[in-house]
Design brief:
Layout lengths: L1 H21 L5 H23 L8 H22 L3 E2 L1 H8 L3 H13 L4 E4 L5 E4 L1 H4 L13
Length: 145
């Protein structure tokens, strides 16, 4: 997308240069008009084409934000389901692929936020211990009490 916009800006700068050359302008306003109508679009186009401008968030940052959002949503859903969640429940709630859901749930398990349990029928259930016992929060007391 950035390359297309870059080429469009260069085309706009060329079009404006042709118009500028045909205009009857003089003095400081002529230089200002040249700067605004030709040089700025050309500089923006070159910056986009050379990769110096890549949008608002770099691709690795977007992927990291997507992963964080997915994990946060999985925790929210698990909390609503009593601290237990399966891959199928995650897929149906979030409309993500089963591979993405499994990868995110496994990442939470690796970080110690979830454990694996298996039902008698072989379904893997991710159990979030802290979410299971969230109701005990009001009974919490200090370590030295």
């Amino acid at each position: 997308m950035g390359r297309i916009v870059g080429w469009l800006l260069l085309a706009l700068a060329g079009f404006m240069l042709v118009g500028y050359l045909g205009a009857d302008v003089e003095g400081g306003s002529a230089l200002f008009a040249l700067l605004i109508t030709v040089l700025l679009p050309a500089a923006g186009g070159v910056a986009l084409l050379t990769g110096r401008v890549r949008g608002f968030a770099p691709a690795p940052r977007r992927a990291e934000l997507r992963q964080q959002t997915l994990e946060a949503e999985l925790l929210r859903i698990a909390g609503a389901r009593g601290g237990r969640l399966t891959i199928v429940e995650a897929v149906t709630e979030l409309a993500v692929t089963s591979d993405d859901a499994k990868q995110a749930l496994d990442a939470l398990a690796v970080r110690g936020l979830a454990d694996f349990h298996v039902t008698d029928s072989g379904v893997v259930v991710y159990v979030f211990h802290d979410l299971e016992h969230l109701g005990d929060k009001s009974d919490a007391r200090g370590l030295l009490e």
